């Protein structure tokens, strides 16, 4: 029994709450009374706790300790084959009014959802330990940060939360006796009968991930995986935080944050939104080959942004770790990530080597022999099946990244000079576009689309609209979200605040044979250089109907060994294609009704520029 637990009878052990917060204590008691765990443990976030839990999980088979000579203090987990990604079809926004969830979210009446969860939770933690994980999203003690408490019966979630957020007793100290916290409740949904042996990856075929925006609560059942179970991440830092941001006039976005320093030593920070598994982590850790240019990492997935007293937009990374896609990450594509992954990591659904290390497609050119694949069987390289699941992930503390910026956990955040948006577009969208102004940038971001990836269930490769890369993560009506962005711009103009410039980028253009036109990866720094030059009022651009495009010289196209015609294809606007694109944009924006007049106006302007109207 942990030292901070108290036995009240032979079979119920309840922890002594290490907090004077009555609201928190009562809520813990309430959930425990319903879920009926064998014991309640308040997580303190210490190394001793990490060691204890990892040892226990090695015993139950959930974790494998990796060879410490190769990766110190690191572990491997294999999930159930049905629990490998976010489940958007089972994710719900339970606002009081259906209209507030909007046309793009699943909605269930909160009263019905509460009833549903009350049933699901009846005894759902029997035979298990209920962990209480106090966590802080954002730098400790920052005015921008938000405290949450996650109740979970998954020790895998506890360890992952320790990497991805700031957890434990220091958070309770900040919370004090009556501070606000977001209530997050999670269960794998697999109670154990007396004496029943556990499985390596407990979960349930029935999954529910529910958000209650008005009361800022999250309930999750049935999955142990990433965004479904680490409730501080997509659920709190995006879905609930986007609602808080709407109510309080700030922005909670699916964006990486980087610091770029030019050869003259001047630094700028930019934030960039791309859908899941479109290279945010790679861009966040990019090592530019351009002489004299340096890029450092502030965050790779989420940005919270508010205006500071100096009128600039400041961003913090609410997370403390990276939950990155492993396949495709290698010394050539992301050396910084590889150098980050040397210790204190958890790997999920990669392959395992005979030496007790991890492997995935793209880590090395040749797979080592003797691999065990992510399903736990000896891998046959001739099978045509990948050894690692395409959405296999690493979980690693941000602080150990060699490219981490010194400002990465500054309580005041970093001032943002430019915002980038991008998706996977095989056609139409050029390498880079600078928006004419804020509303035009919002229009470009609102019409973003991307080909599906393995990060969510659904068809890989199918084009779907993903405004602001927020489609799966906006906790309220997407048209209100777009209006919120327009309002931020309008208010800033009135208050003479300094708005970042907005850009749309596309690393994923293909030729008719399906080959990528743009080399991508470290060469993306050429686009970053142009962005910074534009921010500093330099950088050549040509005005087109869809925005300002870089000249081939501004990108340095002639330094790249591109095939004839490729530079032109990447940096031109095909009017016919864009007339089509504009028509589809109009139809898409119509889905949002007349709630966003500023975007309707932008649509009219685009049609005029294309001589469509
Ligand atoms: O599983 S997560 O939602 O955390 C990762 C992602 O899809 O971006
Ligand atoms: Mn993401």
Précis, in short:
The protein has 613 residues and is α+β, with helices and mostly antiparallel strands.
Q: What would you say this structure looks like, in words?
A:
The chain has 613 residues and is of the alpha+beta class. The chain folds into three domains: 5-42 and 87-248, 3-Layer(aba) Sandwich (Phosphoenolpyruvate Carboxykinase, domain 1); 62-77 and 321-402, Phosphoenolpyruvate Carboxykinase, domain 2, CATH 2.170.8.10; 252-320 and 409-609, Phosphoenolpyruvate Carboxykinase, domain 3. It contains 17 helices and 30 strands. Strands 13, 14, 15, 16, 17, 18, 24, 25 and 28 form a nine-stranded mixed sheet that branches. Strands 3, 6, 7, 8, 9, 10, 11 and 12 form an eight-stranded mixed sheet that branches. The chain has a five-stranded mixed sheet with strand order 4-5-20-23-19. The mean pLDDT is 95. Bound molecules: sulfoacetic acid and manganese (II) ion. Manganese (II) ion (MN) is lined by residues 254, 276, 301. Keywords: Cytoplasm, Decarboxylase, Gluconeogenesis, GTP-binding, Kinase, Lyase, Manganese, Metal-binding, Nucleotide-binding, Plasmid, Pyruvate, Transferase.
């Amino acid at each position: 029994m942990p030292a901070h637990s108290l036995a009240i009878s032979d079979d119920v052990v309840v922890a002594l709450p290490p907090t004077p917060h009555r609201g928190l204590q009562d809520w813990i008691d309430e959930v425990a009374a319903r879920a009926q765990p064998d014991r309640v443990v308040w997580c303190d976030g210490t190394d001793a706790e990490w060691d204890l839990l990892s040892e226990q999980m090695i015993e139950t088979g959930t974790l494998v300790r990796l060879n410490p000579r190769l990766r110190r203090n690191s572990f491997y987990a294999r999930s159930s084959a049905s629990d490998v990604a976010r489940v958007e079809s089972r994710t719900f926004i339970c606002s009081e009014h259906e209209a507030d969830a909007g046309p793009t979210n699943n909605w269930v009446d909160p009263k019905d959802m509460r009833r549903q969860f009350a049933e699901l939770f009846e005894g759902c933690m029997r035979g298990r330990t209920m962990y209480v994980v106090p966590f802080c999203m954002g730098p400790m003690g920052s005015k921008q940060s938000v405290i949450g408490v996650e109740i979970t019966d998954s020790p895998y979630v506890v360890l992952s939360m320790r990497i991805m957020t700031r957890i434990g007793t220091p958070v309770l100290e900040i919370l004090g006796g009556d501070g606000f916290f977001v209530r997050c409740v999670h269960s794998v949904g697999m109670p154990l009968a007396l004496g029943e042996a556990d499985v390596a990856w407990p979960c349930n075929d029935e999954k529910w991930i529910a958000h209650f925006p008005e009361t800022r609560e999250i309930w999750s059942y049935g999955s142990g995986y990433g965004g479904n179970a680490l409730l501080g991440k997509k659920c709190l830092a995006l879905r609930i935080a986007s609602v808080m941001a709407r109510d309080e006039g700030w922005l909670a976005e699916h964006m990486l944050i980087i610091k770029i320093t030019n050869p003259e030593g001047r630094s700028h920070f930019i934030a960039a939104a791309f859908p899941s598994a479109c290279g945010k982590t790679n861009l966040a850790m990019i090592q530019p080959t351009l002489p004299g240019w340096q890029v450092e990492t502030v965050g790779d997935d989420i940005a919270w942004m508010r205006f500071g007293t100096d009128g600039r937009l400041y961003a913090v990374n609410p997370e403390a770790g990276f939950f990155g896609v492993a396949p495709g990450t290698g010394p050539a594509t992301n050396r910084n990530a590889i150098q980050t992954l040397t210790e204190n990591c958890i790997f999920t659904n990669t392959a395992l080597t005979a030496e007790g290390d991890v492997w995935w497609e793209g880590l090395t050119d040749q797979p080592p022999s003797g691999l065990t694949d992510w399903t736990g069987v000896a891998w046959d390289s001739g099978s045509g099946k990948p050894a690692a699941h395409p959405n296999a992930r690493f979980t690693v503390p941000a602080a150990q990244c060699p490219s981490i910026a010194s400002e990465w956990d500054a309580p005041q955040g970093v001032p943002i000079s430019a915002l980038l948006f991008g998706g996977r577009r095989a056609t139409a969208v050029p390498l880079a576009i600078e928006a004419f102004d804020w509303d035009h940038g919002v229009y470009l971001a609102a019409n973003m689309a991307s080909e599906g990836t393995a990060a969510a269930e659904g068809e890989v490769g199918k084009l779907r609209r993903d405004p602001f890369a927020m489609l799966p993560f906006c906790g309220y009506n997407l048209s209100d979200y777009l209006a919120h962005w327009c309002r931020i711009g309008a208010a800033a103009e009135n208050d003479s605040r300094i708005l970042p410039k907005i850009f749309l980028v596309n690393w994923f253009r293909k030729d008719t044979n399906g080959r990528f036109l743009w080399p991508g990866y470290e060469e993306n720094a050429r686009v970053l250089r142009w962005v910074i030059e534009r921010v500093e009022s330099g950088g050549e651009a040509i005005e087109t109907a869809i925005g300002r495009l870089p000249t081939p010289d501004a990108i340095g196209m002639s330094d790249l060994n591109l095939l004839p015609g490729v530079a032109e294809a990447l940096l031109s606007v095909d009017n016919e294609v864009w007339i089509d694109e504009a028509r589809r944009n109009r139809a898409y924006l119509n889905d949002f009704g007349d709630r966003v007049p500023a975007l309707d106006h932008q649509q009219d302007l685009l049609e005029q520029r294309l001589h469509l109207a």
